[in-house]
Structure formats: structure tokens, C-alpha cells
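Practice problem: predict the structure.
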Amino acid sequence: MNHAIVLLSHGSRDPLWRAPVQAVAARIAAQKPGRQVRCAYLELCAPSLADAAGQLVARGATQVTVVPMFLGAGRHVREDLPLLVQQLRGAHPGVQFDVQAAIGADPRVTALMADIACEAPPESKPF
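Answer:
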């Protein structure tokens, strides 16, 4: 199977907001050079989940894992995402779509956030 990943985030008009998700995609691309990865957004910026998945399928992906880049499983993850994935399955019947839990639900992520929170703060920088 040609396995691809979509990192799904909320979205923002501010391009700086997208930088962390794009950094995760760049790291995946560097660590797994054969793995296709795309960022997608629910609103306020492009590409949408449908567009990102369509690009991957057009490039030969037969299995797509959607990774919700959310700290928790709020309404977008619980209600919106299942409907969007159902639409993807209808649009691409020969492709397997899987959805991971919200990234913040992973104990490794919460452990890392706790470690970072407990570190000595860096010198204050004005915003």
C-alpha cells in the first residue's frame, strides 16, 4: 500500500500559526522520505481535508491516515471529522482512510508538554 498522512489542524488566517504543523510535516518528510504528507485545515486557510486527500490519492496513495493535530477531542474532532472522512470514503472508494485520536490525547505528547512546562523559563522576551 502507498501510505500517506494528512495532518489536520483547525486553521488560521495567520501564516505564523501554521508553522508548527508545517514543521511536523517537514520532520515526517525528512524521517520517512518515501511517505507522502500534507497539512490540511478545517477552516480559514487552504488546503481543506478533501483537497489534501485528493492530492495524495492523485499521487497514488491507497491508504491515508488523518492525524487530528488538536490537543483534545472537541466538537471538530468528535462531530466534524467523522463526517468529512465519510465524504472522503465516498469520493475515493478504493482508498483506505484511517483516523488517529487527537494528537493531544497521546500520553507521550502530554508527558512532553508537562516536561516543557516544568523547565526553567527562558529569558523574558517582549511580544
